[in-house]
Specification:
40% of the residues lie in helices and 26% in strands. It has 280 residues and is α/β, with parallel strands linked by helices. InterPro entries: aa-tRNA-synth_II/BPL/LPL, BPL_LPL_catalytic, Octanoyltrans_LipM/LipL.
């Protein structure tokens, strides 16, 4: 069994979290770090947007400031996610890793097997559905909204027909970075309060649609009479899930001094700057 590194890096700012994900990617590409699964949280809670989103057109920075929320542009695609009561994960592994498909969608399927097992470990009847038609894809997309879990082209993790995970992926320097949100609780009203819409009516309609298509772990557990999952329970379930789902051993570790140095540089020069965050 292959051993990967497991890092629980705790709470960091939005910009620092994105900087550390990229620092690990760089270190792995240089052969200075093994394949890595990282768990992390956000302090303060923050809004992240996808690489291709238009920040000033889609985000209410006045509302972010009023609510004391952080903000960052991710290096990956997808749409806006409010990171608060959640477990965030990242997977960093070389594209040439044995058994990892070359296509983005098939690689997502393989890397997300750990997510599937993690949700099941929390007592949820999770499935990975194949979105073979445009009609099926639309079922899990929130069209016209800046707020959405990123929808892979062909696969989606669902429980009772609703999305339970939002993930995005990028490839750089021969390395795959996939990261995403495992929402324990979801405050849809707060998420939509920090986004801009053409009208209040449109906002209300899209928010109602979003609620029908996305769901948090504890909402699902309450329906089945289970108590709310704590963050520690979620970490245990998903650490086991990734090991089982991907057939690997996870060895507890921490970012190296080199990775922390790279992350500090990326924070100062990239993720902590308006040039990056407001670039579109």
């Amino acid at each position: 069994m292959v051993t990967w590194r497991f890092i629980d890096s705790g709470l960091r700012s939005a910009a620092a979290n994105m900087a550390l994900d990229e620092a690990i990617l760089i270190a792995h590409s240089e052969g200075k770090a093994p394949p890595t699964v990282r768990f992390y949280g956000w302090e303060p809670a923050a809004l992240s947007i996808g690489y291709f989103q238009k920040a000033e057109a889609e985000v209410s920075f006045e509302e972010l400031a009023k609510q004391g929320l952080g903000f960052v542009r991710r290096p990956t695609g997808g749409r806006a996610v409010l990171h608060d009561k959640e477990l965030t994960y990242s997977i960093i592994v070389e594209e040439s890793y044995p058994g990892l498909p070359s296509s983005v969608t098939e690689a997502y399927r393989v890397l997300s097997e750990g997510l599937l097992q993690g949700f099941r470990g929390l007592g949820l009847d999770a499935h990975m559905v194949t979105l073979a038609s445009e009609e099926e894809k639309q079922k899990y997309a929130t069209i016209g909204s800046s707020a959405c879990f990123d929808s892979p082209s062909w696969y989606e993790l669902v429980v009772e027909g609703r999305k339970v995970a939002g993930s995005a992926q990028m490839r750089q320097k021969g390395v795959v970075l996939q990261h995403g949100s495992i929402l324990l609780d979801l405050d849809t009203e707060q998420l939509f309060s920090v986004l801009k819409f053409r009208s209040e009516a449109l906002k209300e309609r899209l928010m109602a649609s979003f609620k029908d298509k996305a769901v948090a772990v504890n909402d699902l557990r309450s329906v089945t009479g289970q108590p709310p999952a704590t963050l520690e329970e979620a970490k245990a379930a998903f650490r086991t899930g990734f090991a089982t789902g991907m057939g690997i051993a996870l060895e507890q570790s921490a970012p190296t001094a080199y990775e922390e140095e790279l992350a500090a540089q990326l924070l100062a020069e990239k993720y902590g700057t308006d040039e990056w965050n407001l670039r579109r």
